[in-house]
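Example 9 (inverse folding). The structure is encoded as follows.
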């Protein structure tokens, strides 16, 4: 944790994720935004133009730095989010939980395996779900958990499908890949998923229909996903039947995490403010609202106030749908920043929102050129923008609370 000067700072991050310059924004903001910087590390395989992250506050925190979706191998080739080996040099790779990067795994003189990021170098092993099922590419830290064989994110899954049934292993793999991608973004933007006194414990159950259908949903920290959603044909049929612009596994996780974070960040904390923006979740009850929605359909003219038709059902669903859209926005802009399509400050809501509009229009046209669905299908009216801004404030509050707990 490093001190910074003034109310804002520029944080420059090299290709391996390390901070190498912190400058006063008053003197250097224009140069940083207009020129960028070149990586100064002699060990870096790239001569890549870097872009600054603009942080607000009196402390610099590594968790606030934008993530990347491609990562450098030691040979100079690119590693991707789900890479398990480098296709060029053949080195085994995985996501290191210490530096939050996909890295080559290198052998040390003592026979151990290390994270290949030269600024990290922790001892790691592959997750058991990679060895036994080829499901996971996240690594396990040896120093802190010498007897642990599963990675931190796989340990969150408490129920998996019956792998004796044909096709279930592939469905489980798709679910875990989507879960890792979403939780990576959640952790990178500073939203808490770790166990904390009084907070619901996050877990996941992946189930199939039995004598009774299994509903996808959230209950006191436990997120249940029906594995039927991992069947692309079934999922597309449901999307068309419900008239949805999108229906993806990533979207399911983001939506259900919205319910989780309502319990963790809003409940008994910011309920009054929530009710002013989203409505009173106490009246009607959730059960009555659900019955009314499925009997009568969404509210008339819902596009003037809500992000989706389903959001009209109840304030909790409105929050979850809007939370999902917020994570869509952060993830898309993070990727756009990484590939230098934008240069957006991911901590400034107004700048994020305007950049998202531009990226959305651009990529929507790309998709239409190829006959694909729009990436950003929504029209953002003022009430929806207010709701997104509230969710952004929850993220800011969570980061500030984490700083206060850490003694920053």
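The amino acid assigned to each position is listed next.
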């Amino acid at each position: 944790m490093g001190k910074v000067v003034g109310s804002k700072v520029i944080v420059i991050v090299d290709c391996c994720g390390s901070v190498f310059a912190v400058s006063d924004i008053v003197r250097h903001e224009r140069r940083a935004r207009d020129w960028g910087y070149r990586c100064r590390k002699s060990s870096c395989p790239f001569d890549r133009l870097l872009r600054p992250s603009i942080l607000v506050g009196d402390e610099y925190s590594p968790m606030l730095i934008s993530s990347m979706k491609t990562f450098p191998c030691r040979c100079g080739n690119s590693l991707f989010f789900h890479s398990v080996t480098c296709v060029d040099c053949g080195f085994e790779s995985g996501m290191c939980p210490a530096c939050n990067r996909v890295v080559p795994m290198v052998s040390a003189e003592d026979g151990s395996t290390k994270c290949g990021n030269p600024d990290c170098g922790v001892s790691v092993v592959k997750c058991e779900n990679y060895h036994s099922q080829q499901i996971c590419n996240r690594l396990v830290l040896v120093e802190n958990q010498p007897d642990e064989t599963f990675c931190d994110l796989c340990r969150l899954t408490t129920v998996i499908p019956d792998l004796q049934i044909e096709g279930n292993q592939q469905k489980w793999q798709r679910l875990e890949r989507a879960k890792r991608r979403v939780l990576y973004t959640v952790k990178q933007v500073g939203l808490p998923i770790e166990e904390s006194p009084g907070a619901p414990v996050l877990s996941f159950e992946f189930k199939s229909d039995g004598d009774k259908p299994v509903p996808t949903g959230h209950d006191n920290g436990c997120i249940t996903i029906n594995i039927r959603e991992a069947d692309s044909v079934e999922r597309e049929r449901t999307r068309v039947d419900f008239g949805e612009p999108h229906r993806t596994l990533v979207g399911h996780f983001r939506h259900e995490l919205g319910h989780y974070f309502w319990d963790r960040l809003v409940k008994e904390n910011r309920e009054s403010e929530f009710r002013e923006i989203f409505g009173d979740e106490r009246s009607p009850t959730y059960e009555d609202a659900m019955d009314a929605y499925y009997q009568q359909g969404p509210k008339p003219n819902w596009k003037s106030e809500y992000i989706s038709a389903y959001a009209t059902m109840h304030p909790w669903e409105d929050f979850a749908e809007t939370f999902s859209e917020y994570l869509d926005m952060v993830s898309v802009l993070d990727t756009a920043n990484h590939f230098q399509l934008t240069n957006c400050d991911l901590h400034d809501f107004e700048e994020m929102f305007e950049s998202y509009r531009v990226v959305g229009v651009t990529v929507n046209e790309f998709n239409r050129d190829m006959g694909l669905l729009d990436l950003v299908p929504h029209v953002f009216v003022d009430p929806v923008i207010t709701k997104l801004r509230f969710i952004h404030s929850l993220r800011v509050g969570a980061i500030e609370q984490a700083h206060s707990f850490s003694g920053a």
